[in-house]
Specification:
Largest sheet: 2 strands, parallel
Structural class: mainly alpha
Number of helices: 6
Shape: globular
Order of helices and strands: HEHEHHHH
Radius of gyration: 16 Å
Distance between the termini: 42 Å
């Protein structure tokens, strides 16, 4: 991902890159502001605890970022990225596996 930031395809800090299916869900006018920012390697969508918020939470975080973007906010997000990455890794390691063979056969 860093290579994409160097080549200008991604920003270091920005909005979450969306899939085509997610882009099709963006219909509200206020949500369109997120497209004014380049997608980033990290952003509010990564450092905020939005695991259960779905696409709506991502769009809210991205729109807030697009409206309030500043170098200070970018520094704050970069500062929070490593702890968020470590927290997500720890949660993934402690989360029980869903859909095991035992669950499917009972």
């Amino acid at each position: 991902h860093l290579w994409h930031a160097v080549t200008g395809e991604l920003a270091l800090v920005g909005v979450k890159p969306l899939t085509q299916n997610e882009i099709n869900l963006v219909q509200e006018e206020w949500q369109q502001k997120r497209f004014q920012q380049a997608p980033g390697i990290t952003g509010l969508w990564f450092v905020q605890p939005l695991e259960n918020a779905g696409i709506d939470g991502v769009l809210i975080a991205d729109t807030y970022y697009a409206v309030t973007q500043s170098w200070r906010l970018d520094l704050k997000i970069m500062w929070q990225t490593v702890p968020a990455w470590l927290r997500r890794g720890r949660q993934a390691r402690t989360r029980p596996v869903q859909g095991t063979v035992t669950e499917q056969t009972s």
